[in-house]
Amino acid sequence: MPKKNSFTCSECAVLNCYRRDKRSPQFCLTETTDPKTVQQAAQLYRGKGRYAKAARAAAEVEGTYYGKLTRVEEIVAFANRIGAKRIGIATCIGLIEETRTFTKVLRAHGLEPYSVLCKVGGIDKTEIGIPEKLKVQAGRHESICNPILQARLLNAQKTDLNVIVGLCVGHDSLFMKHSDALVTTLITKDRVLGHNPAAALYTCGFYYQRLLHPEGKL
User: Fold this and answer.
1) Are strands 182-187 and 112-117 parallel, antiparallel or unpaired?
2) What is the DSSP string of 53-114?
3) Beta carbons of 149 and 174 less than 8 angstroms apart
4) Domain carrying residue 42
5) 84 domain residue, yes or no
6) What percent of the chain has pLDDT over 90?
7) Is there a contact between 118 and 167 (Cβ–Cβ < 8 Å)?
């Protein structure tokens, strides 16, 4: 167990911050955070600014369609509510077929998709210091994933909202860091679990016990 002063929301059994109808634990971040800091964040959600508009749109989609729409439909609904017309798609090459279908859905709803593949630029992995032995298939050209270029190309298109479709762990981080537009995720890559990473958490008491009892550093 963590020390008392290192407790965070994952150690809370009350979750009083949601309904405010219980008593919060002493380490509750809602209670221990400086009220000024709380209000500074809340202020960004008020008025007519970019973040305020997105926050209200997200809450409206959640409240209106809770448990009713798929993630694909929620993205469309969110885009409409923030006035997004041009939708950038940062896609993994391994999910290009899913991206092709997604672009059809967007067009059917009057939106304008613009997709950029992760291998754009065609730079071999060895050019950035990756040894040949760490390629998926050593001995042949294998392009790096290029999330920064993906972001810059979508920025140049002045996309209103960008959607991640299966970018690798870390590559998605770089894309989000360099994207001018707000970013949401349609598919989170997990090659082992059919792009359902939560399954590892649901089964860590049985099939994936190794997650809780690691034998060595990954």
Assistant:
1) unpaired
2) HHHHHHHHHHHHHTTTS-HHHHHHHHHHHTT--EEEEEE-GGGHHHHHHHHHHHHHTT-EEE
3) no
4) 30-68
5) no
6) 91
7) yes
Other CB atoms within 10 Å distance of the CB of residue 152 = 16
- Residue 109: both structure tokens together: 């709803």
Please determine, for residue 97, whether its predicted confidence score (pLDDT) is greater than 60: yes
Please indicate, yes or no, if residue 45 is contained in any of the structural domains: yes
**Is residue 42 assigned to a domain?**
yes
Q: If you search the block for the tokens 């400086």, which residue do you land on? A: 34
- Whether 1 shows a pLDDT value over 80: the answer reads no
| Cα–Cα distance, 28 to 167 (Å, whole number) | 34
Question: How many structural domains compose the chain?
Answer: 1
CA distance 174 to 170: 6
pLDDT (0 to 100) of residue 4: 52
The CB density around residue 160, as the number of other CB atoms within 10 Å, is 17
- 52 falls within a domain: yes
Task: Judge if pTM exceeds 0.90.
Answer: yes
- Mean pLDDT value across residues 102-121: 98
74-77 long-range contacts, Cβ below 8 Å, gap at least 24? 75/161, 75/163, 75/184, 75/186, 76/105, 76/106, 76/109, 76/111
Mean per-residue pLDDT, 40-58: 97
Band of residue 29 on the pLDDT scale cut at 50, 70, 90 = very high
DSSP character at residue 145: P
